[in-house]
Each structure stands twice: as structure tokens, then as C-alpha cells.
Amino acid sequence: MMLVGIREAPVELYKILKMENLVASGGEAKFMIADGLVTVNGEIETRKRKKIFPGDVVEFDGNKLQVILEEG
Asked: What does each C-alpha distance from 15 to 19, 27, 32, 36 come to in angstroms?
């Protein structure tokens, strides 16, 4: 599982995929989410702007991401 640090919470789901370069663009991220290809905490998530908080686990295309809050 990869750790993904965010500076402020919450962050929108599509931005996590874009930040980690799992997709080429925000538009592609939104398309993948809308198609039901992304899970949050084990549940399929189709809301592109779903708020993601520290502790959430996002899965996409074989990648498992644990979201953490970065200090500073």
C-alpha cells in the first residue's frame, strides 16, 4: 500500500488519482470514477468530487493508496 500525503483535508477523489499520476488528466480521473473503477474504503465510488480524508483507502487499477495528513 502506498502512502499519499495531503496538506489539507478533505481533498476531492479525482485529485488523488491525478496527484499520484495514476491517470493522465483530471478529466480521465473523473471518467474512471464515473465508470465505477475506483473504490474508497472497499466501496465502489462514482462521485468524482467525493471528499477524501486522512485514513481513507483509495483503490484504482491495482494500486492501493492510504491517505495521510502531512504536517507543515
From this structure: 6, 10, 12, 16
Return the pLDDT at 39: 99
- State the residue range of the domain holding 30: 2-69
Looking at the structure of the chain, the number of domains it has is 1
State the CATH number of the domain containing residue 15. 3.10.290.10
What is d(CA 60, CA 38) in angstroms, rounded to the nearest whole number? 5
* Strand, coil or helix: 70: coil
Residues of the chain with pLDDT under 70: 72
